[in-house]
């Protein structure tokens, strides 16, 4: 069996068996490296080389966690949650609760979409916004799997379609650049305007998957145990501060400054540190409490950081084996000149690669150099080639245990320990987004 397929299968199987995702990634990398012809020392060396690439992400997550804890101490999230609870009313009718459910889901979806473009902070908003809203969701008996699907759609679909924010990086800087680089000697030329137009059909499939998740799969009620979320998870025993005008104003200033600096510097770390500093100036906490603040924040985000570090090591081992090239070459030996089967295999190969790496941004450079010549050989149009490479890379971002598109929602929805990463975030998003992406990506490739 191909080393990449075996490594991904081992990783996913262990994760589904409720083994730690970090452990699953390490074991999968070891299995893939050894089967791929690397010695144990070479496998460990490649893994260690890759781990360094995830360290910056882990530090950024820890800083954001500390910023989220500091914001929660201001009383701003508590005030927001209380306002939303008041909307329910003590004797709320079923119709009123249904309206509040819709309001919550739409609000979460819009915030997630804007986090990719209008205010491109990616998942930084989740640990700030979602935990206080769990009180409302519990009272509504809102299935958190629906919220996870809404968040993941907002984190993935915009960068696949809209060439602003993270979409500018994915569509223009990575996808367009790699397509033209790989197709330069083949006479293939892709223009900037073709890329979002080609990706519109696959994203439409994702939109259908979102509607199915919200209105059919997870529309029913689901009971959760009410817990003191803030005291248990964020404050670590501290009593939430009573909101006061100056503290609330400084909280708003800190949020705006943190987001603005992220846009200006491109660093979540700098933005988070400045936000924490402004909250200290606002009297939300004292500098001598900074160690406790960072400890609480790192505790909240540590799992995600370690998973991202391990995923970077896993990806490096897969590249070192050379098994990705042989996976693609072996797959194409199976279907001869059948264009429909060729398109399907391209998409499935992309799914396997991105599931293991956890990043569609990292997948494109791996597959573009191989897929573009094959697409030209099989007579696919330039638009169809964009669809094949772009969709193959995006497949698996939603639904990967190691993707921040699933780790982010879990970090907010599981602060009370009632939202399982694999079964409540990974599996629902995999089914509702990857299946329609394959179907609509294949249809677009065959029709464009």
From TrEMBL:
Pfam families named in the record: Na_H_antiport_2, Na_H_antiporter
Protein name: TRAP transporter large permease subunit
Annotated TM spans: 58-76, 97-113, 119-136, 148-171, 194-218, 245-263, 269-288, 300-320, 340-358, 370-395, 430-447
InterPro entries per the UniProt record, alphabetical: AA_Transporter-Related (IPR052576), Na/H_Antiport_NhaC-like_C (IPR018461), Na_H_antiport_N (IPR032813)
Location(s), subcellular: Cell membrane
UniProtKB keywords: Cell membrane, Membrane, Transmembrane, Transmembrane helix
Major subcellular location class: membrane
Membrane disposition: Multi-pass membrane protein
UniProt organism field: Halomonas qaidamensis
Keyword Transmembrane helix: yes
Region forming the signal peptide: none
Source organism, top-level taxon: Bacteria
Keyword Transmembrane helix found: yes
Domain Na+/H+ antiporter NhaC-like C-terminal positions: 151-442
Annotated ranges, domain Putative Na+/H+ antiporter N-terminal: 2-87
């Amino acid at each position: 069996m191909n080393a990449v397929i075996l490594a991904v299968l081992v990783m996913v199987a262990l994760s589904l068996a409720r083994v730690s995702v970090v452990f699953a990634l390490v074991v999968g990398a070891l299995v893939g490296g050894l089967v791929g012809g690397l010695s144990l020392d070479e496998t460990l060396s490649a893994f260690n080389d890759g781990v360094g690439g995830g360290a910056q992400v882990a530090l950024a997550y820890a800083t954001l966690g500390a910023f989220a804890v500091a914001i929660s101490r201001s009383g701003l999230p508590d005030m927001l949650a209380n306002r939303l609870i008041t909307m329910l009313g003590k004797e709320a009718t079923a119709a009123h609760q249904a309206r509040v459910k819709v309001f919550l889901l739409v609000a979460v979806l819009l915030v997630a979409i804007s986090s990719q473009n209008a205010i491109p902070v990616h998942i930084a908003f989740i640990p700030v916004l979602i935990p206080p809203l769990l009180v409302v969701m519990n009272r509504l008996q809102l299935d958190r799997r629906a919220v996870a699907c809404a968040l993941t759609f907002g984190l993935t679909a915009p960068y696949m379609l809209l060439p602003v924010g993270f979409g500018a990086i994915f569509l223009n800087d990575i996808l367009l650049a790699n397509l033209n680089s790989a197709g330069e000697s083949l006479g293939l030329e892709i223009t900037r305007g073709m890329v979002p137009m080609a990706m519109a059909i696959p994203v439409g499939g994702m939109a259908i998957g979102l509607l199915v998740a919200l209105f059919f799969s997870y529309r029913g009620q689901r009971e959760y145990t009410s817990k003191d979320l803030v005291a248990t998870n964020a404050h670590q025993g501290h009593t939430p501060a009573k909101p006061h005008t100056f503290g609330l104003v400084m909280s708003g200033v800190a949020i705006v400054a943190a987001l603005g600096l992220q846009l200006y510097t491109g660093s979540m770390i700098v933005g988070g540190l400045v936000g924490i500093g402004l909250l200290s100036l606002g009297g939300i906490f004292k500098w001598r409490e900074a160690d406790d603040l960072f400890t609480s924040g790192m505790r909240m985000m540590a799992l995600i950081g370690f998973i991202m570090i391990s995923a970077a090591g896993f990806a490096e081992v897969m590249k070192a084996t050379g098994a990705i090239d042989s996976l693609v070459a072996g797959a194409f030996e199976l279907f001869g000149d059948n264009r429909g089967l060729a398109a399907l295999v391209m998409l499935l190969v992309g799914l396997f690669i991105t599931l293991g790496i956890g990043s569609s941004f990292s997948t494109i450079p791996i597959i573009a150099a191989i897929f573009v010549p094959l697409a030209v050989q099989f007579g696919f149009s330039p638009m169809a080639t964009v669809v094949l490479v772009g969709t193959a890379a995006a497949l698996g971002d939603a639904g990967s245990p190691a993707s921040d598109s699933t780790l982010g929602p879990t970090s907010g929805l599981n602060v009370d320990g009632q939202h399982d990463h694999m079964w409540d975030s990974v599996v629902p998003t995999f089914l509702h987004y990857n299946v329609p992406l394959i179907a609509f990506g294949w249809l677009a490739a065959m029709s464009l």
